[in-house]
Amino acid sequence: MKKLPIILLGLCIALFSGCFKDKGNYDLRPINEIAMRPSVGDTIVMQQFDTLRIAMRLEQSMPADESQFTYRWNVYPYPNGGTNLDLGDGRDLAAPIGLKPGKYRLQYTITAPQTDIPYIKTFLLEVTGLLGEGWLVLEQKADGTQDVNIITPQDRVIRDLYQTANGTSFPEGTHRLHVMNASIFQYIFAYGTQDAVQVDPNSFGRLNGLADWFFQSGKSGTVNNHFVVTYGFGSFLMLNGELYAEPNLPNAATQYGAPIRGDWELSKYVIQMDFNGQSIFFDNKHQRFLLYASNRLNGFSNPAEQAFDMNNVDKQLVYAGPSLSSYYNCVMKDNDADRYYVYRINYLAAVPAAETYTIDDAPDFAQATAFASSKLYYHIYYAAGNKLYLLDIPARRARLVYTFPVGETIKTLKLKQSMAMFELYDDNNKTLGVATEDNGQGKLYEFSISNTGDFEDGKYKRLFDGFGSILDLTYKNKPF
């Protein structure tokens, strides 16, 4: 019973307290409420490297000068988050989207300076792939930098992939592209005069640079060759003429150790083998072939039945390219005369020096600047000036297959050609890309090859122009 007076006292105090007025000094003002009306819906689906355009209409409860607002458009992966990328700082958005295919959250933020209150609108952005397959064209631009474009099978040309994805240019003097297919993986590299980069095959975003490919820090220079054996285990890199080897699959973290040194000067042309990390190199200094195995370069045995001496060729290697099955075609030249030969090597045979052919009748062969060896026929295409020839190896003679317009010079040519275990095209070794130049203006011609090695209907199938000087050309297939 003693608790009852205490409870009644507390209730009285609470009752009297409610009768006092709050005399605090509060300055309550209305704020400008902003509603955003975008020109698109909340879900946006677009193709990679298209330009995303969104117009934004603003409705304000207390109209103010929109130029005084701050705007931000940014995007990040969805649903797990990740790198946040700024796309623009204007009221409306017009930005090329170089993101890799996937889903993203696009965020639009407005901040009024009077209140610093952010107003946020989000969208679900789905980017569909566009870079799976096509011709990669490396061009020299008017400002002296280099970038890569892709020509899709649907005839679409998507330009400046590296600049769009990274906001910067390739390393200085980039002159070569390489699509490397190792087992089920695809890697893309670009090589400059003192540096190189690996890029993501889906977005062309930079993954790493030349210095990251070695345990020793500070490596720089020119990459002469870079490849993997067909079944993937065994990768090789030639830097400044020195050979580095790694027995495992290449990847974004591949690092090479010390170079394999010896009394040789290795050619950039290599006979790439299928497995066991083996490949055959040519020594320009002693004009001989050397077999790489178990981290060493060795000579060959000298059986009587071989077509030529692998250890003493006594000729210059002009070009080497893959042929049918496990054969390679090696174009050789006499040391003291313009006399040319094709030496064929079967890298899987117990006696690899398989065949020799003289080249008896091949117009402009001494002036040839580019070659492409077929893996379907005994043929080598070669370019001289504005003329394209086909060398028939068993016939020991060449014939003219196409003449480009006067003023155009052939810069490079590339067969659409499988070099990996799982990489196949419907037109494997049946499509040839030829890049030409006329006063700094580049063109790409695509030819379909008939069963005789000539071009179907005697003309090109597709033509693309509007490029700067084309430095290199290669074909990117869809990753396995």
Shape: elongated
Strand order across the largest sheet = 2-9-8-5-6
The whole-number mean of residue pLDDT values reads: 90
Low-confidence stretches: 12-20
Q: Biggest β-sheet, characterized?
A: 5 strands, mixed
Strand content: over 45%
Q: What descriptive keywords fit this protein?
A:
4% helix, 480 residues, elongated, 5-stranded mixed sheet, 2 helices, 36 strands, mainly beta, 4-stranded antiparallel sheet
What does this structure look like?
- The longest helix is centred in the first third of the chain and has 15 residues, at 3-17.
- Mean pLDDT is 90; it is low at 12-20.
- This protein has 480 residues and is mostly beta strands.
- The protein is elongated.
- It has helices at residues 3-17, 161-166; strands at 34-38, 43-47, 51-54, 56-60, 70-77, 85-88, 93-96, 102-111, 118-128, 134-140, 146-151, 157-158, 176-182, 185-191, 196-199, 206-209, 223-228, 235-239, 242-246, 266-272, 279-283, 288-293, 296-298, 316-322, 327-333, 340-346, 353-358, 370-373, 379-384, 387-392, 397-403, 409-415, 431-438, 441-448, 462-467, 469-476.
- It starts with a helix and ends with a strand.
- A hairpin with a 6-residue loop joins strand 20 and strand 21.
- 32% of the residues are buried.
- The strands form 10 sheets. It has a 5-stranded mixed sheet with strand order 2-9-8-5-6, with no helix packed on it. The protein has a 4-stranded antiparallel sheet with strand order 12-11-10-36.
- Helix content is 4%, strand content 45%.
